[in-house]
Amino acid sequence: MSTEIDDLIDELRSEAAMDRPSVETPDVGIIMGSDSDLDTMAGAYEALSELGLDEDTGEGAESRFSYESYVVSAHRTPDLMYAYAETARERGLSVIIAGAGGKSADLPNMTASIAFPVPVIGVPVQEKSVDSVIGMPTGAPIVAVDAGKSFNAGLSAAQILAGDHEELADRLVDYHEELESEVGAVSRELHEQGIEVFREDP
Ligand SMILES: Nc1c(C(=O)O)ncn1[C@@H]1O[C@H](COP(=O)(O)O)[C@@H](O)[C@H]1O
Q1: Which of 20, 33, 133, 197 could form a disulfide with 24 if both were Cys (CB 3.0 to 4.6 A apart)?
Q2: Which residues does the record give as substrate binding sites (predicted)?
Q3: C-beta of 56 in contact with ligand 1 (< 6 A)
Q4: Is there an atom of ligand 1 within 6 Å of 123 CB?
């Protein structure tokens, strides 16, 4: 195993042993099979940022709730995947968002099996990855979004956290109201301008 992977695994294991209070640890883990997935996975980070979560890059985060990000691959770095999933709960993660592409997108489902009972939200990076992400046997659950819908994965992660944190539930309600009023404004414009004018200058 490479030194880089060894070091990452050691860090994860020592963080797990620290037994830090939950205010000091990231709440959401965002992992992806390759950094080439970043454009697709950016939605998860956008949704979480919009809800006020900061990224914890190892130095702690200013906000009460935070997320972290790693590249982890079931196929290329199986030991790192194992260590990440196995230590997730002890490291304080409440939910993991895992994205992977290709026809053999195993990172989300393998992570879900190992990290259980920490819930995993799978993001198939491409349409062809959907079946391998969601196809889990009974007793080995994964939650998943449609191909590329990482923004929804971020919202779902926040929904899971909101069960224990009223503050986050309120932020989700505000987000939803904003979304509704945006659609309402578009609806009024379409109605009042008519289809032809609206299409020329939406
Ligand atoms: N599906 C997986 C896994 C895995 O499931 O373990 N590891 C990498 N990959 C995927 O391979 C694609 C190509 O990766 P590269 O661009 O690095 O060649 C990516 O979409 C990644 O998620």
Answers
A1: 20
A2: 34, 37, 76
A3: no
A4: no
Which of 31, 37, 41 to probe ligand 1 with, by most ligand atoms within 8 A of CB?
Answer: 37
Best residue among 73, 76, 103, 150 to mutate for probing ligand 1, ranked by most atoms within 8 Å of CB: 73
What are the phi and psi torsion angles at 121 (to 5°)?
Answer: -105, 115
Q: What is the pLDDT of residues 7-25, one digit of tens each?
A: 999 999 999 999 899 899 9
The single-letter DSSP state of residue 30 is E
Is the CATH number of domain 3-164 3.40.50.1970?
A: yes
Strand order through the sheet with 143-144? 54-55, 66-71, 28-32, 95-100, 120-124, 143-144
Q: 73: Cβ below 6 Å to ligand 1?
A: yes
How do residues 20-57 score in pLDDT, each as one tens digit?
998 999 999 999 999 999 999 999 999 999 999 999 99
